[in-house]
Write a structure and sequence with these properties.
This protein has 13 helices and no strands. It is mainly α. About 3% of the residues have low confidence. The protein folds into 2 domains: 244 residues, no CATH class; 44 residues. Helix 4 packs across helix 13, helix 8 runs antiparallel to helix 9 and helix 12 runs antiparallel to helix 13.
């Protein structure tokens, strides 16, 4: 791997954390990923209906989408896999987009709030540089999705007028127009779903359960690092590990590297070392003890789970007939607003 080429850490150094802690880190990560899949299943069942495919097919679809999410800059793209899965199961594109949007908002809401907490705690402890970096990244992310949520509940979102001209540079005018119309129709349906559910106590309850599942998933993300820290001289408790991994996640959203590689590791190191000076940024490559643990954590929480998610993606791609029912119209959505 590239991490062994650009750092002084060897495979033996990584293995020095111990087999049991490494496995526990991997198990904590898979628990987090499975909780996210459970949340997707819960949202599908509550917002769309009970008969949209089977439990395990929905779980595999979520894992497949997570592979795409984890192999693109800014953790984007997985929602397209989930929307494709739902539409092939007979769900209208707008309703499918609503479920995935709720997932994104749950992740963004929990992730950015935790990032704000981590950032302000760092600033209050004198770690001005890392704290300001975290807060600066979290603010526009939270603001954008909060605006989308509020705006879609009041007005329809449409693609900007220049989208057609841009699309015509790559495909024919007819196909471009059809594509734009399809996207706008899906956006219309999404906004209709938003207005139907926004302000409904039942929908707020469903979303609150999703938020709770997301928070528990983030706690397991923190645990995935905590179980490896026995070999680090600095004391790292559950709360610090929780805040550090939240900081790592928010830095990984920068559209610089695939899956936040490098950024996630640096964000974690910077937080637990109270980074406060630009001149300290390169010190990570000389901090062998902590770097061993951080790289071991990254392998256990990213690279190995990626293999499992890839298997789920291949399973999904090779089995195109997902639908268990002919149409979502035959279902009885639990979330139907009176």
């Amino acid at each position: 791997m590239l991490i062994f080429l650009f750092t002084p850490v060897s495979l033996n150094d990584v293995l020095s954390v111990g087999v049991v802690p490494f496995l526990l880190s991997f198990i904590a990560t898979m628990t987090r990923i499975f909780l996210q899949a459970i949340r997707f299943y819960y949202f599908v069942r509550k917002f769309i209906g009970k008969n949209i495919s089977s439990f395990w097919k929905i779980i595999f679809a979520r894992l497949a989408g997570e592979f795409v999410t984890q192999t693109t800059p800014s953790y984007i793209g997985g929602e397209l896999v989930r929307i494709a899965f739902l539409t092939k199961s007979g769900v209208p594109a707008g309703r499918a987009a609503w479920v995935t949007t709720m997932e994104i908002i749950a992740d963004v809401f929990v992730g950015t709030i935790l990032a704000f907490i981590a950032g302000f705690i760092a600033i209050s402890n004198g770690s001005l540089l890392i704290g300001l970096i975290i807060v600066t990244i979290a603010t526009p992310t939270f603001g954008f999705w909060f605006f989308i949520l509020i705006y879609s509940a009041k007005k329809n979102i449409q693609l900007p007028s220049f989208s057609l001209k841009l699309a015509r540079k790559f495909i024919s005018e007819q196909k471009a127009q059809q594509g734009i119309n399809s996207v706008n129709k899906a956006l219309d349906d999404l906004c209709i779903m938003s207005r139907e559910n926004f302000g409904s106590f039942k929908s707020v309850k469903i979303f609150s359960v999703g938020i709770a599942i997301t928070l528990v998933a983030f706690i397991f993300h923190g645990l995935s690092f905590l179980v490896l820290t026995h070999s680090v001289d600095t004391y790292i408790g559950l709360f610090l590990s929780f805040m550090a991994t939240s900081s790592s996640t928010i830095l990984g959203t920068l559209p610089i590297t695939i899956g936040g590689s490098g950024l996630a590791e640096w964000g974690l190191w910077g937080y637990i070392n109270h980074l406060n000076d630009i001149s300290q940024i390169g010190n990570i490559v000389h901090d062998n003890d902590q770097l061993n643990v951080i790289i071991a954590w990254r392998i256990a929480s990213y690279y190995i789970p990626l293999v499992i998610m890839w298997i789920a993606l291949m399973r999904l791609a090779l089995r195109p007939n997902y639908s268990k029912s002919n149409s979502p119209s035959s279902t009885t959505p639990d979330s139907k607003v009176d």
